[in-house]
Amino acid sequence: MTLESMYDLGQQPRITETFTSISTGLPVDPTDITATVKKPDGTVTTYDYNPGAIIRDSLGVYHLDLTTDQPGTWAARIVGTGAAADVGTVTFYVRSDPTATSVNYLSRDDLKNTVSLGGSYADPDIDRALAAASRAVDDACNRRFYPDANANSVRYYTPQAFDRILIDDLLTFTSLKTSQFGDGTFTTTWTLNNTIVLEPLNASADGWPYTRIKLNPWRALLGFPHWAPRSVELTGKFGWAAPPAPIVQATGLVAKRLLERSKSAVGIVITTEMATRISSSDPDVRTLLSTYIREQIIL
Question: Are strands 86-95 and 153-157 parallel, antiparallel or unpaired?
């Protein structure tokens, strides 16, 4: 089986396998061909020939085109049966999108500069370290420091009292509706800066998201239905516009130490669990994250 060892997210690698006769060594068509592909998240997909995604190029030569929609390590296996019984296996790595606005708080090039690495040979380890470190920072702070792709995501909450609702980090507000009878029908609409206000009041000016909604008792005739679970429907854009500098620095420290550990011991695979242990035990990382740690919302 032939394949390059590394691809960028969105590329379409072609897996090619040549089947030969067990007795003569010459190309020959198998009786049947199947392929299984395992994505980085563990999802396994099976592909077939005639009809199917596996294509015959010539006598004994077949290929399968894939679309790489996840960063990380992929594995593929093609099995032929009959006169050309054979098995071909391959693994390859898909790099994360360096232009993505979503998940990693430090770029690959920035981390390379930090650890004085050149070339692309270490890109798989760097990508794993960046992803693991970013998710460990999220876990340590009980929040994530990137914005929703959707400007109008919908989330549900239970008010903590008749006059306040603790919410996930909110960048922009679209609407707030409540189910005043707790029946799941959201018929009461609240008006921003009239019946309700977002707090902290100057969060946006300071580069922070909003974290709670407060009732304006002078304008509202009703209070929030705090006695009813899941009685609030909030629509807006959640998350952070960009990671603050201390978050970026903490991510770099964790990722750098993950790379050092993977280099010092053969066979160590970088994981989020490793990154979590570093972020919780390293005093420098704890100091950088301390201002951004948020208590989990209890619904």
Answer: unpaired
The C-alpha atoms of residue 100 and residue 147 are separated, in whole angstroms, by 11
Question: What is the reported pLDDT for 220?
Answer: 81
Can you state the percent helix, strand and coil of the chain, rounding each to 5?
25, 35, 45
**pLDDT exceeds 60 at position 268:** no
Nearest Cα residue to 101 out of 264, 242, 250: 242
Q: How many residues does the chain have?
A: 299
DSSP run (H or E) holding 152: none
> Token match 């929040």: residue?
143
Measured CA distances, 118 to 108, 124, 126 (Å)? 11, 13, 12
Task: Specify the amino acid at residue 62.
Answer: Y
Farthest CA pair distance, the chain: 90
- Residue 202, classed as helix, strand or coil, is coil
3-state secondary structure at position 98: coil
pLDDT digits (tens, 9 = 90+) for 11-31: 888 988 999 887 788 899 998
